[in-house]
Amino acid sequence: MTYPFLNKLRVIESSAFIAAPLAGLTLAQFGADVIRVDMIGGGIDYARMPRMPQPDGKGRSLYWTALNKGKRSVAIDLRRPEGRELIQALATAPGPDAGVLLTNIGTPWLAHEVLATRRADVISCTIQGNGDGSTAVDYTVNCATGYPAITGGGSRERPVNHVLPAWDIACAYQAAFAVVAAVDHRRRTGAGAELKLALSDMAFTMLSHLGVLAEAELLQQERPSIGNHLYGAFGRDFGTADGGRIMVAAISAAQWKALVACCGIGEAIAALQQRMGLDFGDEAQRFEGRDAIAQLVEPWFAARSQSDAQAALERHKVCWGSYSTVRELLANDPRVSAANPVFEHLATPGIGAHLSAGTAVRVPAMLREATAPAALLGTHTDQVLSEVLGLDGGAIGRLHDAGVVAGPERDPSAA
Amino acid sequence: MTYPFLNKLRVIESSAFIAAPLAGLTLAQFGADVIRVDMIGGGIDYARMPRMPQPDGKGRSLYWTALNKGKRSVAIDLRRPEGRELIQALATAPGPDAGVLLTNIGTPWLAHEVLATRRADVISCTIQGNGDGSTAVDYTVNCATGYPAITGGGSRERPVNHVLPAWDIACAYQAAFAVVAAVDHRRRTGAGAELKLALSDMAFTMLSHLGVLAEAELLQQERPSIGNHLYGAFGRDFGTADGGRIMVAAISAAQWKALVACCGIGEAIAALQQRMGLDFGDEAQRFEGRDAIAQLVEPWFAARSQSDAQAALERHKVCWGSYSTVRELLANDPRVSAANPVFEHLATPGIGAHLSAGTAVRVPAMLREATAPAALLGTHTDQVLSEVLGLDGGAIGRLHDAGVVAGPERDPSAA
Hints:
Order of helices and strands of chain A: EHEHEHEHEHHEHHEEHHHHHEHEEEHHE
Structural class of chain A: alpha/beta
Number of strands of chain A: 13
Shape of chain A: elongated
Largest sheet of chain A: 7 strands, mixed
Oligomer: homodimer
Radius of gyration of chain A: 26 Å
Mean pLDDT of chain A: 97
Helix content of chain A: 25-40%
Number of helices of chain A: 16
Distance between the termini of chain A: 30 Å
């Protein structure tokens, strides 16, 4: 669902994959009118897995439709000068709540200086791989961050990639933030802005913001590879008698006390502290004693069913979470259901009804509007050309006849 | 470094750990005047590892100082009514570029309705664990997302946690975005906003945005656990003759062609396609054939040094990245150096000079201002009380005498 914060700010999105589309989705969820412009027939990300099985295993992409809900769709031949001209015109159309381009397609015809000749105060946000314009994707950036050497018991020689496209996600929200800040700035000063955001800069600056870079530089030290232990305090996963798996975190002093009380290991912990010469009231010393602490905690979990353990953890206000697969999460966790106001039911053309999310932000006093599902490609071509560029039926018809634009694709699931 | 987008928007931050401080940092990097208010002596996150070795292994935290650069620091006794009153007054002081609270400390005296009695158009952004106000941290949320069961060859029974606090990071940028959107909205409509953002909502809505939730619901399918392979196309890490490790991604058709050409495996790939009845021009079929493809690629890397492999990959425009530890990254990669304009040298009190990052966003036409290092706790107490609340020297002195506020802590590294 969406909130009307952004007064239908018109954002033209020419994008692919995750970072730019997720930035557009974020803007749409706060009430921007995001118009995604795609190549006729779909861009490079249009068919990405997973896809609906019908027809022929090549139905609509659940990936693409998830990232492009809440937007309008315009289909244009991006290879032809007339098509590019239309996109430039859309991105630079006048109005205080317009003149914003969001893209990750670094191409000369969408360069800021080109757009600025048409609208001096245009705001463009270009997501790149590297700051020099060279290609990089989440996977080829993450490998350089050092994280794979310390994930999942990995090492420099046997790195473990994480699966979540975390840098794409960070880029998306950072980009959406930058766009709105630039719009606010333009409203006050009249100045446009060229915003560039490289995936590798996103990752490497984060290493600075989390203190990891200073640690390497000043202490000449790498984070240890410690499996599922958390760094800097105490926390790890434990198995229950019935094959369940539970993560506990004892970061604050209160969380630590709760864990010790819940597991009834106060005396054993006191003895351990004495033996090791450590004070587990201090988070850093809990971290130092993590393996020995874990050995004292393990039997408690191993002796209980998952549900008994969870009930006790909850009673003692331990900070815990249980592991689940996505299907288990959907089946069992009310946080992922329409009972949670950040979720809603959506009927996506070519896909059907399913649970879908709006923005994670809750604004108790503001009415949420329903999210529009991801449109069939080109659904809003004529509407947008008429409304934004003022083209009449004849002009739009000629663009269709010349193959410069296309209307709604056929619903692939329709008979 | 910071850009002056936000016109010194005053944001009062009462926070701990990552999500809220990183949101504040993001705002500060775009020119907000972020005033972090801490308990006298430091909050719960003030001493988090890693720390400078001097004195006594308990110098300033590299974690805290990294997340709190570019902000002003005020030290107040948060337990006393007079201290709480000061924070409420700071958060609700008048002005169009003020009246914003950012917090992850869910406490009645910072509740939106309390602040709104002092300033009707206040904007508050509260980051929570769960939407019902219960506690959760990155680790106890991530375990429920299903990712640990498919990370690093993990399984439902042997989950692998990723190390990057990705949900905290996403929350931070989402929160910063929401704050700026609400400020823009207030400027237009005069209305304040209560913004709430739960870490678990952030994670679970992302499962929707990435199509993972719909996949589980509609296709009743979990993502496979495939180690370092990427999902949905071809990409994996490979070892070089000299013990190097390189990630390659062949997501687009052009990237795939480049990889095949670089490794000189065109004929072998053609034969493999025929044998398997697959067309690797299609990304989904590359994914299906990933293990067999990897077998053909492996010998090419195994026969080359890392530097020879990299040179060839670069020549063929393959999408690749090499694995490195953080120290290797710092030593060898110019993207992580002061040669990259998103980085700068910073001298942090109690820590010394080190490389540090500003915002990852580049704005070519706008002058970046230098980032202020993380202040010693309470450095700006008097300045802020005077400037924002108009307290005179006598009043401020009485607050000090009563122990309600504190001035700058001593630099722990000073002799």
